[in-house]
Amino acid sequence: MTLSSSSNQGTSDVKIVDMHHADQDDENVSASPKAAICQAFHPVETDDSLTVLSFKVPPIIEEEQSVIKTPRKEAYFDICLDVSGSMAGSGIQCARLAMKRLIDHLIKTCGVPPNRIMVYLFSHQCNVRNVNGDDKWIDTISANGGTSFACVFKEVIKNIKTHISELDNDDVDLETTLFFFTDGEDGDAHNLQNARIDLEKLLKSTPRLESTVHTFGFTASHDAKLLSWLTSSGSNSGCFQYIKESKEIDKSMSTTLELLGDSAMAIHRKIEINLPNSDGVVNDAQDWIPVKLKADGMSGSTVVRQRPFKGDLIKWREYKGTDSSESVVQDMHVNWSSEDDPLRIVDMATFIQHELLRLVEVINGIGSDTSQTPEQKRAKLLKIDEETEAYSKVLGTMTSTSARMKLNLTREPCMVACQRTRSLIQSFLTLKADAHKQGGSISNTSLATFNSLAYGEITEAKLKAKLDARAGKNIAMFAEMDQKVTEIVKEMDLDKMESEEPKDSLRELSCAFSTNSYVDALLSRGAGVIADPSQLIIKSIFPTYLTSSMFTTALNHSLSQNDPEDVHGGFDRNSDASIAPGLAHENITAVIPLYINAEHWKVAKLRMKPILGYVVTLDATGYTYSQSTTVPFLVLAKAFESFPMTEFKQRQLRLILETCDAIYRDSKSLREDTKALVKNFCASHTQRTVDVITNNYVFLGHIICALRAGDITTADINALWPKFETAMVEEQIRRDMSWRVSEDLMGSVMDWFDINRQRDIVAPEQQYRVQHDAYVKSLENGNANAGAEAGYRRLFDMARTEQGVESLSSHDKNPSPELPSSSTAEEGPVSKPVFKIPDFDPLTWQLSEASLDRLRMIQNAISPTIDKICRLLTVVRSPLDADIPQVLVSLGATASTELVDQFFAQYSTKIKLATLLQAFAHTRNSSRRSVENFMTPFERKYADGPDQSSDEALLFLKSLYLANMNSVAGKIVAAVEEAYMNSKENAASSIFLSADDLTVAAGVLLEAQHRGGAGGRLTTLCARSRMSLPREKIQMLLTGTYRHVKLFADKTGSLEDIRWFPCKRTLYRMFKNYHGEFTFEEWCKFHPHMYDDYFAVRYVIDGCTDELPVEKRVEVRATYESLRSPTV
């Protein structure tokens, strides 16, 4: 037997871009497709004219070989080496060695005839020679002269044209590969441009010519723009390598040789594809796109631009050169990849990398185009900014999607691809910023560094795809075989096989060294399982037995041969680790000993300790007592889930149950604890929390064993029923809510009550505001300002008296207007308004259809674990004889979630909703334990009659409604009061600005108390506004006193003399409005830094020097002239 477990925890601008799937590589051995299929996606959602296609077509069958002729391939290799004077010394020495290695690889590994390899040695002129198998002449190559790329381009063009003219028929294709080594810049720019145009036209636009250019730039002095263009000038993607020092040439050549592999002369099958228009009509003959397939002859990929396509079918045919029109047109079905498809993410990352290289060439073109104005160049660069931003957003989505992938096997390559692409985008943004500053021009070093990084990522991806395909070849074969074995085992009638097999044969098939038997377990664990073994979750049970020696041997061998994380899975619940395979090659990462008989158990329970220690903590010495009283019972709970329950599984479950029985009988403390927990379980909700009962499945397993041992009787259980059942189910729901039911799914409490916002909230709020306004108005009685001014006078007088300042003489204060008496009010104040909450009757209230749907979704979310609880509860209430056959048959015939559906069907919708809402509110253990008014869960069944207004569930729902509506009302009342207080504060500011009585103004500042907060806002307002008596009021604000009375403090809770100063902006605003109210010296004294220079400049700039004495004007202007600061 085995278990599985986890811890709870285009015009056609078409260029073939190899996406390099490992499962599509040359060496892949996957099954051939019976029909052509295609995976497609749009890199940018808003642009359906850009499509990435990856497809696989059926192989050519033998009967068609005579009809379909794969074109013969003529391959040539051109090696262009810069031998100008700058290469002298170590540079030319390393280049000679690298060229030798390249030629040797092409001849010996790839089987290229020597006469197909041409060497171009160029400086200010170009010498061409054929290899012809002799490489001694390479050692004689020397470096001298200038550098002319035009001369080597012309020779390459000449030779390629010669090769094309030598093709004898239409069945021959020509492929040329260029290797370009240089460390300098072109010294013949006059002839270079035309040579570039001719070379690119030849390489990209010649029918039946495929070309690839690999470039090597030595040191920072090489022409990065030229090599960047050259690398992209072929019909296939080449590789660029930036070699900072000559000693790196050999390493770079190794990378190139790995990339070439041994397939340089391999003949590849070709097809043509056609993207039908929106009406499904095949486009014109010239719209057929040729695609070279990989070495497997079935898979390929391409990027199609400027051709809108969203269909589910494309056309394809075999490529036969000029006679392709005679090929049979076939259908290729298109599957559009989803955003979370790992292959799409990796392909998209590769696509973005190629796109960034393309955009670099566009930027280079913008920078070198002298016919465009700076504005035109800027417009084009801004368009590139838009494209880059779009790809950055896509990459962000890809990264987020990759991070959410559960399987490390798929998550890791996606995350790596995203991270590398993000680094490349950052480098591109730096390069692009450089281009913006220089009108499209890019520095040579920046471009060389970026190209090296970009092509390095692409090259590494290509090499990894080759290596992964080789390493995965045998693994794929075994995986396919294992899958077949698994399917065969599933179809086996194990019961019949066992009954028909002779006992002697069964004995022989048992482990020869077994002194005990084990149930093997596939485990993945979270780190929390070390402290709490109940976090281990058993996923499935398999029919495999191992001896302890075999398991230990397999464990030690696997740990010595593999990464430990790949063996035991660490603490990653999604790990696919394996110590050893089971009967059907299922992964095994742990075992649990079984009870066979009393004598055997003496040894087995001793062996159990280190085994459980390893299973739970990955350390054989990490055993604790709780592991033996937990893990086997988790296995028992899983065994009761078996559906259907075959005879074999019944025997399997009986072995597990007998093991748990033995553990229970041997543990006196477990027996006593179980009896006490059962007795107190229904007494209080605080006796069911996780700090009391760690795991409900384990607890029910203990109860089953207690019943079988006679520690608890069936009568004891029946006395607790049905409260025990409903309490257990509700407690498990509460524990599941935090991770099975999201806050979005549960929604706001108010959502359940179908609140009409306009009727129940907006309209009462409007009514409350009207009533509050009337209430406030009645209090003020139309004399707000007059009454307020009198209050401010009284406030000032009180402060003067408290501070011991003598009364002001009549000539010291401005006359105060006579105030009307408040006794003239005709009406008294109205009563204070109250926000009215609409009534709610839970008995007549009905849930909306949307709420009912949401309730069903929540029920479905928690059903899997509640079904397991229901199964265990069924066992608890069943006769538990030695074999327990009846309950096993009953459970085995019950499909998953059937029992939980039956349980929920017993209760009304409102009863279920109240229970779920309470459980969701108490997901934290502390919340459950601290609640005082606990509602009895699942209080009334349908069979006991309809819902009653006195039911705890309905009272609970009403209390929830009132609590939430009172919260809403409280917020509304607070907002209205805050608005009123703000209006009072604004009124105080208005009184301060307009008051002609300075004692009133002083009273306003006294009420502010501090120059921070309200006082600070008042100071700012005064600086911006016009006011009466500005000199006196500004002095009040800036000195904090009036007639020796301290008006406010500069620090909360303090009246000490702490000097406060306004900021420079506030000072400037005051100066601008009231510069004539104070002398130059007074303005300077308003700040401790004096600000002499600042105010001197302000007087000059604002044209206020006429207000100064003549001698001060000269001084101020001299200060201004000495500064002349544009920042003033």
UniProtKB/TrEMBL annotation:
Spans annotated as Disordered: 804-833
Ranges of residues in domain VWFA: 76-254
InterPro entries the record matches: VWF_A (IPR002035), vWFA_dom_sf (IPR036465)
Superkingdom assignment: Eukaryota
UniProt name for this protein: VWFA domain-containing protein
Species per Swiss-Prot/TrEMBL record: Modicella reniformis
